[in-house]
UniProtKB/TrEMBL annotation:
Lineage: Bacteria, Pseudomonadati, Pseudomonadota, Alphaproteobacteria, Rhodospirillales
Domain Pyridine nucleotide-disulphide oxidoreductase dimerisation residue range list: 351-458
Cofactor(s) the record lists: FAD
Entry protein name: FAD-dependent oxidoreductase
Protein family membership: Belongs to the class-I pyridine nucleotide-disulfide oxidoreductase family.
Keyword NADP included in the entry's annotation: yes
UniProt keyword list: Disulfide bond, FAD, Flavoprotein, NADP, Oxidoreductase, Redox-active center
Length: 482
């Protein structure tokens, strides 16, 4: 066994690990990157990329019938070609995350499993069969744990003995499921439920709470309607309590007495951190069932070790932060703290999120419900797309822009529901990051007709609110004098 000492040892080559490894190597640090699975992690192989590629194919399949006076024949879906498109999208992006690219940047990439043996070292074991089990022992000045998360499979009686799909296997299907049952109505269940329905499968979704419980109810309403109109059978407040499997198919029973049957089952019930084989105890790294505990500088309880991305415990920085840009930003901050001694802190207030269904649900900062629960005083300015000229011309007026601001107009959050909501969110991410005021957003000069004007219109209500009482009287007087 060989021994090494490096500047930074990164475990996990997903969005977080790759960001930190590239940044450190570019500044001349000696970096080892250890990955036991596929380079690119969840986002590239089992998450963002395949799900958005599938949704893109599904969007094309959804456009049959007569719309705006144009008759389009119901599209015919060739699912094996859809599967090929999804795999091609992964393959097209894969070189950016590849071993070759990172080696060219100067990173040493080990395709192996990492496990701590002491607070300052870990051993690296080969995964491939027929080779020596332990490859190397690595000592590092700093470690970054970027091990991500994996599907949470709840301990429901009958589930373990049933052949189920997760996000790690569903994109391998080369044939369309006849009837897909989905356990869970978070982003994974909603996105994949809509995609498979549009591609022609029957879909039944059971969700223990309401759909997307982290989003405001008024934001979820248009999506619920769309799913139901398109034929997804949605059972909310239906917690699955038993799973049965026979040659005839799969049957789910819920606590509220519903029984549904289908040909395939997707488990989309949340995530759990990938920490089981890391030997965290040997390194004195505190963790809980939700992940590794860190402070706002991404430091763990072991001062040499930092963590970033999906593996970070919800209890540390806040729940619901498992997104690719969060993983990337946390990794960049962890690198700055670990190697540059730059005291950078992660700011949870500016995290954006988008559920890429049709209509999209996008948000940055506080939702209205979160603002209410925070106990602070706030105002809500809403502009529906029904009053937006571009949306009217497109014949798609679903959704709205909702701005949440404090009493002085400082933006606390923005929720956008509708076509292209994710892209429409960008100026609001900037506004929140820069501490801008609704008045500043209302004064922007924007092109007409665009959907972005709905945001300006929502922000403009800030002034309408001011135009009451003595201010209104004063302005009237000025008008008369002028
Ligand atoms: C279906 C789905 C769709 C999604 N869509 C979006 C989206 O549209 N937008 C968005 O922002 N987010 C999306 N996400 C979330 C996003 O994929 C994750 O937040 C992101 O990939 C997390 O990156 P990470 O680097 O923390 O972890 P990962 O990408 O999971 O990488 C961790 C890596 O560490 C490796 N590893 C773990 N333990 C060890 C060990 N002991 N030794 C060696 N290697 C190890 C793993 O093999 C893995 O490759 C989606 C998630 C899913 C499941
Ligand atoms: N567009 C995106 O950015 C995107 C897309 C997909 C996933 N993600 C990330 O991946 C994470 C995981 O997504 P997810 O949808 O798997 O998890 P989730 O935790 O967001 O939702 C899972 C849902 O399953 C339900 N559930 C759990 N047990 C159940 C049972 N026995 N019966 C019925 N329902 C049950 C829960 O009520 C929960 O709402 C997300 O939180 C997000 O961070 C992001």
């Amino acid at each position: 066994m060989t021994r090494d000492r490096v500047d930074l040892c990164v475990v996990g080559a997903g969005s977080a690990g790759l960001t930190a490894a590239a940044a450190a190597a570019r500044l001349g640090a000696r970096v080892v990157l250890i990955e036991r699975g596929r380079m690119g992690g969840d986002c590239l192989n089992y998450g963002c990329v395949p799900s958005k590629a599938l949704l893109a194919a599904a969007a094309r399949a959804a456009h049959g019938g007569n719309r705006l006076g144009v008759e389009i024949a119901q599209p015919a879906v060739d699912f094996s070609t859809v599967h090929a498109h999804v795999q091609a999208a992964i393959a097209a992006i894969a070189p950016h995350d590849s071993r070759e690219r990172f080696q060219a940047l100067g990173v040493e990439v080990l395709e192996a499993q990492a496990r701590f043996t002491a607070p300052d070292r870990l051993k690296v074991s080969q995964i491939a069969e027929g080779t020596s089990p332990v490859l190397r022992e690595i000592r590092a000045r700093r470690f970054l744990l970027a091990c991500g998360s994996q599907p949470l499979v709840p301990p429901i009686p009958g589930l373990a003995g049933t052949p189920y799909l997760t996000n790690e296997t569903i994109f391998d299907l080369e044939e369309l499921p006849e009837h897909l049952l989905i356990l869970g109505g978070g982003p994974v269940g909603c996105e994949l439920g809509q995609a498979f329905r549009r591609l022609g499968a029957r879909v039944t979704l059971l969700q223990g709470r309401r759909l997307l419980p982290g989003e405001d109810e008024d934001a979820v309403l248009p999506l619920r309607q769309a799913l139901q109109e398109e034929g997804v059978i949605v059972h909310e407040h239906s917690r699955v309590s038993r799973v049965e499997w026979s040659g005839a198919g799969i049957r789910l029973t819920s606590e509220d007495g519903k029984v549904v049957a289908g040909s395939h089952l997707l488990v989309a019930a949340g995530r759990q951190p990938s920490v089981a084989e890391l030997g965290l105890e040997a390194a004195g790294i505190a963790h809980d069932t939700r992940g590794i505990r860190v402070d706002r500088r991404l430091r763990t309880s072991n001062r040499r070790v930092f963590a970033a991305g999906d593996v970070v415990s919800d209890a540390s920085l806040g729940a619901g932060l498992r997104f690719t840009p969060v993983a990337g930003q946390q990794a960049a901050l962890a690198f700055a703290n670990a190697l540059l001694r730059w005291p950078a802190r992660f700011d949870v207030r500016t995290v954006p999120r988008v559920t890429y269904c049709d209509p999209e649900i996008a948000r940055v900062g506080l939702s209205e419900a979160e603002a209410r629960n925070s106990g602070r005083s706030f105002r809500v300015f809403t502009s529906p797309f029904a009053q937006n000229d571009r949306a009217v011309t497109e014949g798609d007026t679903r959704g709205f822009v909702k701005v949440i601001a404090d009493r002085r107009g400082r933006i606390l959050g923005c929720v956008i529901v509708g076509r292209g909501a994710g892209d429409l969110l960008h100026p609001w991410c900037l506004a929140l990051a820069k501490g801008m005021n609704a008045g500043e957003m209302a004064r922007l000069l924007l092109p007409y007709p665009t959907r972005g004007e709905a945001g300006k219109r929502a922000a403009g209500q800030y002034y309408e609110r001011l135009l009451t009482g003595w201010r209104k009287a004063l302005l009237r007087r000025l008008v008369r004098l002028g």
